[in-house]
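no rush on this but wanted to send it before i forget. theres a chain ive been looking at and ive put its sequence and its fold in token form underneath. please have a look and point out which stretches look like helix strand or loop to you. thanks a lot i owe you, the record is right below:
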Amino acid sequence: MKILSFISAVVLSFFTLAFNANAVDLPATSAKGAILIDAATGEILFEKNCKEKLPMASTTKIMSAMLALESGNLDEEFVVDSDAIKVEGSSMGLQEGDRVTMRALVHGMLLPSGNDAANAAAVRICGSVEAFVQLMNDRAVELGLTSTHFVTPSGLDDDTDEHYSSAYDMAILAKEALKNPDFREICGKYNAKLKYGNPPYERWLTNSNKLLNTCDGVIGVKTGFTDKAKRCLVSACERNDATLICVTLNAPNDWLDHSRLFDYGFTMFEKQKLPAETNKFIVNVVGGTEDTVECETKIPQLNMLRGKADEVTSEVYINHFLYAPVVENTEVGKITYYYKDQVIHEEPIVTSRTVGYKKAEKEQSFFSKCCSKLGELF
């Protein structure tokens, strides 16, 4: 009986291991370099040669568009530089003398992948393409993109092989760019009606990112192709309040690669309650009918990688006192949640009830005080 029990246990263990192995099988990818990360934490869920330096084609425009949006005056009209728009490849249709806005150029970069839009923005912001490229490289250093070097704002191939990045760096760049609400909105548009030209007139631009219509939850980001780089794609997908970023460089079957990687990645997520010592607080009130007021916050549940909630830390930022009157549901602070020093969530702390203003007693006049004393005597 002991021998049979031992054999049964071994067989059961074998099938359990086999089942678990199949359950976590990584999807195949056609890419030379690839990565899948959690946009909130930067956690790597899948990678293939993710640090290898490779040409990245028009995914370069993620950096160009982000810098353009940060330049300000997005809706101010100006005339495009005539030399800047004389560039080969994909285009938003700019011609000499056209009047545009920076916002329109960003649409032109992120939707039809206009090389003319990238060059026009570069000259407008820095005075020359070369100066803008330096700005791109400086920002890459700030973001810690150690495997990235830019030569053009558009991503067109260069003869020096000095225009390159890595799947990892492009994921970190996309993560940063998506923090900009304008970038996030524009890169997720299937099409957009814009007005530019000489004189400006309305026209439609269509996004080259097919995943926006074929993969559930995709919100961007940027396609790319050159003869040297082959097919490149950076995409982001949001499901159940979690966001993943996927990058493939030199991937013949990139649409399918990204769809499979997203389906795989989201199976690793679940709703988890974030750790908190308390959700109740007491704040002092100055000049109120009561000396203190109760405050509270929600204990959030986030859709995040299994088991990672235990690694989350939090810090409380709250006012030391409030001046009366205090209105119910007034925000008095917040709890910030961190995962590996990165902010992943913030929850407001609000007052639980109203505390009125304590009216000061009126001081008696000299005549009233005298009358009161006389009254006491008689």
Q: What stands out?
A: The two ends are 110 Å apart (CA to CA). The first strand starts at residue 33 and ends at 38.
